[in-house]
Write a structure and sequence with these properties.
- There is one protein chain.
- The protein is an alpha+beta fold.
- It folds into 2 domains: 63 residues; 70 residues, no CATH class.
- It has 2 helices and 7 strands, in the order ααβββββββ.
- A 7-stranded antiparallel β-sheet has the order 6-5-4-3-2-1-7.
- Helix 1 runs antiparallel to helix 2.
- The protein is rod-shaped and about 75 Å long.
- The protein starts with a helix and ends with a strand.
- The relative contact order is 0.15.
Amino acid sequence: MGSSGAMAELLIYLIFLILAFGAIKLALLYIKKRKIIYLIISIILVSVFFFFLWCIKEGHREQQLEHVGSYHLKHYPNCKYCTLTLKEGNTYEVKDSLKILEVGDWHYETGGDAFIVYMNKDKDRLGDGRFEYFGSDSIK
């Protein structure tokens, strides 16, 4: 992970911390002083917290969908021209020209500026071993 990716991830955690701490502090002030403005601002901060969380999850989903598509596999066993297709529902299938050879699940993980596409409950990775590919028709 590069330093810019680590800084971005740290900034996200800092924003979460500020929003959560601010909302708790204002809620405690409301309980202590009974001023409605503290409650209103606390509710706004909680709303912003959940909106920010939704934006992060939606961004992750969009990054994951960038990998949806077909990949031409190099080393799939007993198959010279196999294609791996990652689908939007987080499932995949490996096909030769006539039949489906394998199906399974996949998911995308990121850490700053690095990403990995895992398959088969983290047993395999896109780009490694039998899932090494030389070209793709991914949707971007």
